Amino acid sequence: MKKKSVNYGKWGYIFILPFFVIYFIFSLIPLFDTVRYSFFEYFRSGIKQIGPNFVGLANYVSLLHSDMLKYGLNTLILWVIGFVPQIVVALVLACWFTDARLKLHGKQFFKVVIYLPNLIMASAFALLFFTMFSTNGPVNSILCSLGWIKEPIDFLGSVLGTRSLVGFMNFLMWFGNTTIMLMAAVMGISMDIFEASDLDGCNSIQRFVYITLPLIRPILSYTLITSIIGGLQMFDVPQILTNGQGNPDRTSMTLIMFLNSHLKSKNYGMAGALSVYLFIISAILCFFVYRMTNDNDPDGSKKAAKKRARAERRKTK
């Protein structure tokens, strides 16, 4: 008699089916609708609904003639202010905590402390900083009581002050998450490599530049790509800190805040076109970052082969 075989492979597909159903209903269909509406004139004027009327690329052209490029530059500046110190501090802390020669105590405690700001909601962070750095806030009160300033500083009334606060908040919220990921990447490097570098007389800077950085490149690439996507989606911190106005003079208005203004005015066509622009920009930036950080020749064999080929061509000439 033949034994009846049980195929368990189908159960895997059954278990993952709910995810794809939910993704299709709540993500994929709205995504296609967003792209479709970007080619239509579709908005509300008072209680009257205009459209949807097909207008082709008119929404895309209108956005190029609007302040979209200015808001894109604002988003880039705010992202750079927050990301550059974030990656520098995260790299330093990751190398410091994972250095076996230092024999640091209480690493788990410091990991928890570093990661704690990441658990706080961005809206709560923004409200806290709005209260602390307002004209009548505790920061100005302390500075005045110490005699360092004579009049309160309007942090939120200056371009430098507002952008610095937004960048500083993004740095505080995300540097802990980046540090934990980079620590995991550094701990994945074999200790034999570091021991061999010590025997060869490498100092700390040489170890970091020639060993640590090349070997954690995949995690650095992931961190940079996710940070770019998060930077393009920057909304809650500047929205709450500037009450949705992007003050002063809209210098802290981001692309998502601009998108939100179209959604509030029920202009779904322009909002859809801006969403498509954001998707294209994200895809292009992530592609370039991946190409720059991806190492297709880790052992240097391809580079050596090219050098040999060039040398042979010179000899034949």
The beta-strand count equals: 2
Query: Biggest sheet: strands side by side, in what order?
Result: 1-2
**With helices defined by DSSP (H or I, 4 residues minimum), what is the helix count?**
14
* CATH 4th-level superfamily: MetI-like
The overall number of domains is: 1
Biggest sheet layout:
2 strands, antiparallel
Low-confidence stretches: none
Describe it.
By secondary structure, the protein is mainly alpha-helical. The protein has one domain (27-294): MetI-like (MetI-like fold), CATH 1.10.3720.10. It contains 14 helices and two strands; from the N terminus they run αββααααααααααααα. Strand 1 (40-45) and strand 2 (48-54) form a beta hairpin. Helix 3 (68-97) packs antiparallel against helix 10 and helix 4 (107-115) packs antiparallel against helix 7 (159-187). The N and C termini lie far apart (76 Å).
Architecture blueprint of SSEs:
Layout: H1 9-37, E1 40-45, E2 48-54, H2 58-64, H3 68-97, H4 107-115, H5 122-132, H6 138-145, H7 159-187, H8 191-199, H9 204-215, H10 217-232, H11 236-241, H12 255-264, H13 268-293, H14 301-316
Antiparallel strand pairs: 1-2
Q: How do you describe this structure in short?
A:
With 317 residues, the protein is mainly α. Helices cover 69% and strands 4% of the residues. Helix 1 (9-37) crosses helix 13 (268-293).
Descriptors:
14 helices; MetI-like fold; two-stranded antiparallel ribbon; mainly alpha
